[in-house]
């Protein structure tokens, strides 16, 4: 029996905690910092410490942790994996350098170019006048995408539609002190069209196993309107991508990441999340993330048939080759996840969130799961919302339609002041 530590406190980490808690191999799970919605789960303890490296090490040693699973990108980009490995603690996730696949868009684009991974054409700039002059070289009829090099919590990517918007975005990112995103290094990228999908694999630095596909709803409002968010909902696509596409994604994307990182001397261990744009048969990588998606994890984990713990341990120990026959998406089940967010999300300077309302829902049914994110318990022990994405309901079913109906039935039982959710998740 092993003890597992999970780093993070959102819906993704609640889903990971739930899935890992089902494993007969696991005795105890310590979630750092977790959230108050995760309390009361069998085997699970919440530890509200921040994820300062030395505190994590001490906590892991004190609790005899055998495996650490890191949810969010921030501790990965800060090198928590390297520190854990120095202390001999097994961990799922890439080290600081390999994490640059997500934390630096430029690193990621150069890596894709060098390894012949299909992606949009781009140019990089370190000052705004060069970037603006370069716009003349780009066909602005299709629009272009402006991206900051570094992590910007989803605010560092703007899909622009004409010259003026592109110029304004460049000036905002590079020269405007009022803009919430500030960068000295940006990328201009060809705008791609098609259908987006998030593809997942798990690597041990040497080989990988595919974990499945999910479609995320990034915009706040129905019909893909409104600002970009972390993700307002998700579903597992039906009969798509095709088998040929999946083979292409495995060979031309995941394999190249694993081989390419190994060659640089920074083997990639952990979850590889490829954000893809698929236009008919044409597949391009929009971005890499170095972790599970939130809310993609909330649909992929509930339909995963097997125990995830042996796979995670094999990623950490370099023995994933034993799982070569693992088939992603073996389950015929479909899943839909609907997120409820607080009023004002994703804006940071919105009116204060209303905290006084109690959330009323029976915890779960056989085919539905309630995963918490932005919640805490008040003085009376009731859950209240603390902002951002508050929670989400995942339902599974034989069809997306069945899963969708059930997820929305779950959502209809939950109430808190000024809750927001999309009504069109799973409408394909
Ligand atoms: P990223 O953080 O790079 O995935 O970008 C966030 C979102 O911006 C993506 O999910 C896409 O919807 C959009 N996006 C990014 N790059 C492009 C591109 N080259 N063409 C079209 N849309 C893009
Ligand atoms: N849902 C997108 C992400 O986790 O980045």
Entry keywords:
428 residues; alpha+beta; globular; binds adenosine monophosphate; binds glycine; 12 helices; five-stranded parallel sheet
Structure description:
The chain is α+β, with helices and mostly antiparallel strands. It is built from twelve helices and 21 strands. The termini are far apart. A hairpin with a 3-residue loop joins strand 10 and strand 11. It is globular and about 60 Å long. An eight-stranded antiparallel beta sheet has the order 16-15-10-11-14-17-21-18, sandwiched between helices. Strands 3-2-1-4-5 form a five-stranded parallel beta sheet.
Note the topology.
Blueprint lengths: L1 E7 L2 H11 L4 E8 L10 E3 L6 H10 L4 E4 L2 H5 L2 H7 L4 E2 L7 H4 L1 H10 L7 E4 L2 H7 L9 E5 L8 E4 L2 H13 L10 E5 L4 E10 L3 E9 L2 E3 L3 E4 L4 E3 L7 H21 L5 E11 L2 E8 L6 H8 L5 H9 L16 E8 L26 E5 L2 E3 L5 E3 L3 E9 L2 H12 L17
Parallel strand pairs: 1-2, 1-4, 2-3, 4-5
Antiparallel strand pairs: 6-9, 7-8, 7-9, 10-11, 10-15, 11-14, 12-13, 14-17, 15-16, 17-21, 18-21, 19-20
Helix pairs in contact: 1-10
Bound molecules: adenosine monophosphate and glycine.
The site of glycine (GLY) has 7 residues, from loops.
């Amino acid at each position: 029996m092993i003890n597992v530590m999970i780093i993070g406190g959102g819906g993704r980490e609640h889903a990971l905690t739930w899935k890992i808690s089902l494993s007969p191999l696991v005795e105890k799970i310590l979630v750092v910092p977790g959230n108050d919605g995760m309390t009361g789960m069998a085997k699970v303890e919440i530890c509200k410490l921040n994820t300062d490296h030395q505190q994590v090490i001490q906590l892991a040693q004190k609790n005899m942790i055998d495996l650490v699973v890191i949810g969010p990108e921030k501790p990965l980009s800060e090198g928590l994996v390297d520190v854990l490995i120095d202390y001999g603690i097994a961990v799922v996730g890439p080290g600081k350098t390999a994490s640059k696949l997500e934390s630096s868009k430029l690193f990621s684009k150069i890596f894709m170019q060098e390894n012949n991974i299909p992606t949009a054409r781009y140019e990089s700039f370190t000052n705004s006048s060069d970037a603006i002059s370069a716009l003349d070289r780009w066909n602005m009829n299709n629009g272009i995408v402006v991206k900051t090099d570094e992590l910007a919590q989803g605010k560092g990517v703007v899909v622009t539609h004409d010259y003026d918007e592109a110029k304004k975005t460049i000036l905002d990112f590079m020269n405007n002190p009022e803009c919430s995103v500030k960068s000295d290094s940006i990328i201009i990228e060809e705008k791609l069209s098609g259908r987006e999908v998030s593809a997942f694999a798990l690597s041990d630095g040497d080989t990988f196993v595919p974990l499945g596909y999910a479609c995320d709803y990034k915009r706040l409002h129905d019909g893909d309107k409104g600002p970009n968010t972390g993700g307002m909902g998700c579903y597992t696509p039906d009969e798509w991508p095709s088998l040929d596409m999946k083979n292409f994604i495995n060979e031309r994307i995941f394999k190249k990441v694993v081989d390419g990182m190994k060659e640089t001397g920074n083997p990639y261990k952990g979850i590889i999340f490829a954000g893809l744009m698929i236009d008919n048969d044409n597949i391009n990588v929009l971005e890499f993330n170095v972790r599970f998606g939130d809310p993609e994890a909330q649909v992929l984990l509930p339909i995963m048939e097997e125990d995830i713990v042996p796979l995670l341990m094999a990623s950490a120990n370099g023995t994933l080759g034993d799982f070569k026959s693992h088939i992603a998406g073996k389950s015929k089940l479909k899943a839909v996840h609907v997120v409820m967010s607080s009023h004002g999300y994703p804006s940071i300077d919105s009116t204060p969130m209303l905290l006084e309302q109690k959330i009323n829902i029976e915890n779960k049914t056989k085919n539905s799961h309630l995963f918490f994110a932005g919640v805490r318990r008040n003085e009376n022990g009731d859950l209240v919302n603390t902002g951002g994405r508050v929670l989400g309901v995942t339902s599974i079913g034989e069809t997306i339609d069945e899963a969708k109906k059930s997820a929305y039935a779950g959502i209809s039982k939950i109430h808190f002041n000024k809750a927001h959710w999309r009504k069109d998740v799973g409408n394909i």
